[in-house]
Amino acid sequence: MPPTVATTDLLIIGAGPAGLMAACWASQYPNMTTRIIDKRPGRTPTGHADGLQSRSLEILESYGMVDAILQKGVQHAEMCYWGRNKCTGGIERQKRSRARMGDGERYHMVLLNQGLVEQTFLDSLRGKGVVKVEYGVRAETLVLKGEEEDEYPVEVGVRRVGADGASGAGDDWEVIRARYIIGCDGAHSWTREQLKVPVRVCSGDSTWGVVDIVPISDFPDIRQSCAIHSGENGSIMTAPRENRLVRFYTYPKGDGKLNVEGRDQSDVSLDDLVESIRNAMRPYQLTYKHCDWWSIYKIGQRLVETYRPHGRVFLAGDAAHTHSPKAGQGMNVSMQDTYNLVWKLGSVIAGAAAPSILDTYDLERWPVGEELLRLDTELVEAYEQDVTSTEGVERVRGKYVDFMTGMGIAYGPSALISGNSSDPSVARNMKVGMRLASYPVVAQADGVCSQLAGRFASNGAWRLLVFPGDLRQSHTQSSLESFADKFNKQPHLSRWQKTPGLGRCYPLETILVHSSPRTSINLLDLPDTFHPFDEAWGRDYSRVFSDDGSDGGDLGHVYDGYGIQEMGCLVLCRPDQHVAWIGSLEEVEALEEFFARISP
Amino acid sequence: MPPTVATTDLLIIGAGPAGLMAACWASQYPNMTTRIIDKRPGRTPTGHADGLQSRSLEILESYGMVDAILQKGVQHAEMCYWGRNKCTGGIERQKRSRARMGDGERYHMVLLNQGLVEQTFLDSLRGKGVVKVEYGVRAETLVLKGEEEDEYPVEVGVRRVGADGASGAGDDWEVIRARYIIGCDGAHSWTREQLKVPVRVCSGDSTWGVVDIVPISDFPDIRQSCAIHSGENGSIMTAPRENRLVRFYTYPKGDGKLNVEGRDQSDVSLDDLVESIRNAMRPYQLTYKHCDWWSIYKIGQRLVETYRPHGRVFLAGDAAHTHSPKAGQGMNVSMQDTYNLVWKLGSVIAGAAAPSILDTYDLERWPVGEELLRLDTELVEAYEQDVTSTEGVERVRGKYVDFMTGMGIAYGPSALISGNSSDPSVARNMKVGMRLASYPVVAQADGVCSQLAGRFASNGAWRLLVFPGDLRQSHTQSSLESFADKFNKQPHLSRWQKTPGLGRCYPLETILVHSSPRTSINLLDLPDTFHPFDEAWGRDYSRVFSDDGSDGGDLGHVYDGYGIQEMGCLVLCRPDQHVAWIGSLEEVEALEEFFARISP
């Protein structure tokens, strides 16, 4: 019997965090057909990755998913560093380091097992009803055709497999013809292997021991993240988790008597691991009754030479980069890979943007992978160099803190990131290429106070933020009017503003944040572009905000926070909230050129 | 064929907000079997009640449901009062009134149609999987037997009905034998009729017109709550809602030319209603394309003489009280009725508490119904007395603001509310009978900052809050130790602390909030009762908090907020977060007596 043949715009291979994030983004583009397959019978049950950094939480918020994560997870509030006391030989606390949030930042790191993170994605996907994960489906063949000869040039043969990985009958064979595929299939990526993508190996495999248990212990910092260097008794890392669990890591050359290096789950038992952890925690006690998950696994520092080994094939997550679990980065960088990619695919497939924007994926994400390995190398070295003190570890963590939270990631110049903003001084604290910080604002229409970021849902829209200054001044008002007038006359800007159907929104929204007292302004007196009218749905009242400090709270800090000068400015935010361009209210032509360049 | 006969501890009749809240509470008591029936084919589709007040949101939070509501609903931030301009004859804004949150309060009112509120309850019930709403089931017969002769003295005959309300075949007949029933079956309550419960009629029926539309209008406050008195053109109320909807109410003797009084949906059209609203809003325009829901309905001010017409039968929600929609109270007081009741039923059925505590339901909730009608009467009068100005309305709203938010509701002395706290000055800003205010605290074990109220999940537990003061002082430490020592020796307190199985927790938890810097204290040095040990699950690290202001933010205000004096105090909170008793750290015997009195 011939196999079933189906076509899809996008095929995602692998439903771990990177794949699920891709599916979630794809759900926002109803014009793009998407399938996601995973050879496993279902989601990760528990264990595995467990750290969600600040930027990842912002992204989850932009999908309306962060509350579920915050409810289930444990917040990381403080890190404690423990070293060896030279007199007693036991460990002692050397330092407490409180997790601080940067200006415009909103989340502390949250710890939650990967299974529950995946479940939150699955719940969200089910609620949207657009993309459904196909578990128990294994990709087995890959054929790439010329882009000219075939509209769906990527042919993936897949087979439905049982829970044991065994293939079923012959009629379980399907050929999926796709425009694009994303390989999110992990450290041993099948997709990567098919294309024989060169991999840069920065270190050989190291063996890690990890356990998630409910500890019974008198260690005073058992509910905090700790780095513990006990000298000859080995060194460990701990992190508090949901349901009274605590995660413990032992690491190569640092686990004292056990020395897991080169061994695996077949010759090291859970009790061996706990014994090794117990040794490192002396003089404190440690036992357990309940273990949620444990593993011994090998991992090396590796980075693919390109995230886009073929025009229609992308790699993301562990398929592109592997490293140690030391900095709690794995799930985060992986999810952020596909968060960077899929809105670009959605725009291209909807015909709104030129396919050339897809070049920016490798351009933007490969350097992040490279930086990740640099951090990891330094952190592993710091752990190995001094087994009795955690000073080195603390120094490396301090150096990379903005990278680790995701706040410091800045994409370089490209078609989607302007390299030559005319005057960077119009918004001194804002950097082109970085994600936009958030501050509380007051909505003009209803007086509700909320974070500006709450207006940046991941729905495919670009946002042009207009900061005119204080509208009670006549020159400010006239400069706003002249902006609006010019803005509406630009052909590309008009098209991007008025073409619905890309995602669930218009592809370009204008948002106004003025610095006048809210009650001094009547929304309907502002230019139409800030309250556009729809025949059926009336006016959009959600586009105007005030940076009005007169209502107390934490209000009135937007202009200061961004460092916006008196002349005001325009800020263009991409669908992934990264700042693409900054200019003055007069530079509408430069904005028009930006959109002209990325239009098909 | 004889009918099916089933038994259940609790039968809830009606799955509106009161019934669903009852089901949600009942889900927390796995030892109590519960059924909930509703004759409708499914939940309220849309429209109907739409206001959730501050206290209701706190309650939803305690079930983990508030995030879903906040995401879907619209926050009420400001109320605008519009009256008639004597010169122009049109309306003009007379006042803006910003919604303020009281000290220790955390939510602004949220507006969301009843259908989505019910859906949130249904989602939560499905997630718990304990109680499932049976739609399309109508109660038809009620037989009450003596409590001595039958363990299940309430017999309700129910019939499965089609979507049109028609009965099905004879085998759809079931007899449900229950220990207790709650009639949450609305203004025309079948349960109330069966028992011929006397009803106090405070006013005859008035007719209300209500529409939920997407308005197309130049009215500047269209996205805010407004009271509009236009003089001869009638008066209306407005409220912003989800999905660009706005709710408009017209009311009797205030709707200008239309005069809906005594009329119903058969002789007044939607366009008539909108025409009437348009008149009241002159000189502003109003049209619409989309209508979500509209209705004309009659309602009078009524209150049952008792909320417990029979030892085993309770009434709640509209079955107990009806009134105008003016103050946005309906859904709130109704949900709070069953929130007051079901934990008492759960404790009695689990054998933890004496059945006599059920007397407190009528004792506590009937006065709330009475106060509700008083507010409603004054508000209706204020609307009627001056049709050109809203001053009177504003005055009444100001007078009852604490009642309307739910913050001001204080239950009087009873078996569950102590009437004679020895020295009220130990916590000057706390009132026995009121719900406990919330402030941010720092968790001792992990340093996470959160609202103290986050620790008060609705799971059936009583909480004894221990406020010893600054534990760096030796007399404070010894007074805490002496408290713990005495506390553990009391037979009733020990039983309540150690009997699992009531709800999902122990029935009495001790929680410590000290005022020392967090890092000066080691949790394990505190008495065992604040970190109890469980063989399988280890220590409970979640019971100790610090009122430590040194970490900035809004911290360090708990002791001040509650007005706790240097000697410290004990505060007993019921499972519904109302303060049951306040005393000094020495008054452990008084606490023991409290629990002795309510024990079976």
UniProtKB/TrEMBL annotation, chains A, B:
Residue ranges annotated for the Phenol hydroxylase-like C-terminal dimerisation domain, each copy included: 409-598
SUPFAM superfamilies, A to Z: FAD-linked reductases, C-terminal domain, FAD/NAD(P)-binding domain, Thioredoxin-like
Molecular-function GO terms, alphabetical: FAD binding; oxidoreductase activity, acting on paired donors, with incorporation or reduction of molecular oxygen, NAD(P)H as one donor, and incorporation of one atom of oxygen
InterPro entries: FAD-bd, FAD/NAD-bd_sf, Phe_hydrox_C_dim_dom, PHOX_C_sf, RIFMO-like, Thioredoxin-like_sf
Start and end residues of each FAD-binding domain: 8-374
Pfam family, one: Phe_hydrox_dim
Record has Oxidoreductase as a keyword: yes
Entry's family note: Belongs to the PheA/TfdB FAD monooxygenase family.
Name recorded for this polypeptide: FAD-binding domain-containing protein
Organism: Aspergillus carbonarius (strain ITEM 5010)
